[in-house]
UniProtKB/TrEMBL annotation:
Residue window of the full protein shown: 242 to 605 of 605
Localization of this protein: Cytoplasm
Predominant location category: cytoplasm
Protein's UniProt name: Glutamine--fructose-6-phosphate aminotransferase [isomerizing]
Subunit note: Homodimer.
Active site: K359 (for fru-6p isomerization activity)
Keywords for the protein's UniProt record, in alphabetical order: Aminotransferase, Cytoplasm, Glutamine amidotransferase, Repeat, Transferase
One example GO MF annotation: glutamine-fructose-6-phosphate transaminase (isomerizing) activity
UniProt-listed Enzyme Commission number(s): 2.6.1.16
SIS domain ranges (all copies): 45-185, 217-354
Reaction catalysis annotation: D-fructose 6-phosphate + L-glutamine = D-glucosamine 6-phosphate + L-glutamate
Function: Catalyzes the first step in hexosamine metabolism, converting fructose-6P into glucosamine-6P using glutamine as a nitrogen source.
Length: 364
């Protein structure tokens, strides 16, 4: 399919810019202020069934897997159901125990990724309940699932996913509030998250206004042969996704680690030629994250922080607006989409069609 680029030079740039509207769309018609909850029409899960879930397992590939990791922490945090994410292909081949009290969730932009579809089919064959968090309406995974949440990001043409990643995480936040409010999430917390979700489009708009500054930073880091991305807990999937995006479109080698793991090995890589991008939200882990910055600085590593306020240990800080702690990962990923974009642009890469990659991988 080909869609109008709407004055942008690439689909990726267009799709990054569309995020405020895209987030607006995924929220639309789903929030119930009277009960501080969220209604999801296609979920196909009644409250009694929702209360019986003992575990949530999220399956996806690539960027969708990273969105699923954030989704798992949102569900575990708000609904207090143990939740984790796993690459769909790994799951399929390790002969997993399929448990009737586990809710399985397949995540896919295209809804056609073979590894995810095959995992869904294997699960269904074993009698499991599988929901889809999918962008393309009527796609194979959406049809195969017992129910689910459409992500409503609109058509995404660039091979690397930006707006769909963001919308998928927002869709998971909606699902987490929905499940949470059936279980133990209080009215107050439900309301707090809903209000946070409503602030997202304007906050994304604000981040996008900083594009020129991010472009200038990209010019400074584009000479790196390799980059380190670090984050902690909620920030770790943000680091993983930002490093994947950089690899995919700029071809710069990048590693992502939990900040807490640095001293268990990757710290050996730190030197001036290996810059670090650090996710440093203003939350209960701020001091821990600052300590990691100090460790890097002590090894003369260059640091670019994404934070809610200036970080003295960092050489540069990209400041993003603060939301509720749970929703911060959504906003912290956005400047890093622009960083990857402008790095790739500075290096003259074919941004919408990176080498060796396809938009949807429908073969094994
Ligand atoms: C493009 O290469 C993406 N970054 C890729 O990782 C993608 O997320 C993955 O192939 C899964 O695609 P899906 O979301 O359409 O299932």
């Amino acid at each position: 399919a080909s869609y109008d680029m709407g004055g942008h030079d690439t689909y990726m740039h267009k799709e990054i810019s569309e995020q405020p509207d895209a987030v607006d769309r995924v929220l639309r018609g789903r929030i119930d202020d009277r009960f501080s909850t969220v209604h999801l029409g296609g979920l196909n899960l009644d409250p009694r069934e929702a209360r019986g879930i003992r575990r949530v397992k999220i399956l996806g590939c690539g960027t969708s897997y990273h969105a699923g990791m954030i989704g798992a922490s949102l569900i575990e945090g708000m609904a207090r159901i143990p939740a984790d994410a796993e690459p769909a292909s790994e799951f399929r081949y390790r002969n997993p125990v399929v448990d009737p009290d586990t809710l399985y969730i397949a995540v896919s932009q295209s809804g056609e990724t073979y590894d995810v579809l095959a995992a869904v089919q294997e699960l269904k064959r074993k009698g499991a309940r599988v929901l889809g968090v999918v962008n393309v309406v009527g796609s194979a995974i959406a049809r195969e699932a017992d129910g689910g949440v459409y992500v409503h990001a609109g058509p995404e043409v660039c091979v690397v996913s930006t707006k769909c990643f963001t919308n998928t995480v927002v869709a998971f936040a909606l699902l987490a509030v929905h499940l949470g409010r059936i279980r133990d999430l209080s009215v107050t917390d439900g309301k707090r998250i809903i209000e946070g979700l409503r602030r997202l489009p304007a906050q994304i708009e604000e981040i996008l206004k900083g594009e020129e500054d991010i472009k200038a930073l990209a010019a400074q880091y584009a000479d790196a042969k390799s980059m380190m991305f670090i984050g902690r807990v909620r920030g770790y999937p943000v680091a993983l996704e930002a490093s994947l995006k950089l690899k995919e479109i700029s071809y710069i080698h990048a590693e992502a680690y939990p900040a807490s793991e640095l001293k268990h090995g990757p710290l050996a890589l730190i030197e001036p030629a290996m810059p670090t991008v650090a996710i440093v939200p203003d939350d209960d882990l701020l001091e821990k994250n600052r300590a990691a910055l100090e460790e890097i600085k002590a090894r003369s590593g260059r640091i670019l922080a994404v934070a809610h306020r200036e970080q003295e240990k960092a050489d540069h800080t990209i400041i993003v607006p603060k939301n509720e702690d749970e929703l911060d990962p959504i906003l912290m990923g956005i400047p890093l989409q622009l960083l990857a974009y402008h790095t790739a642009l500075a290096l003259g890469r074919d941004i919408d069609k990176p080498r060796n990659l396809a938009k949807s991988v429908t073969v094994e």
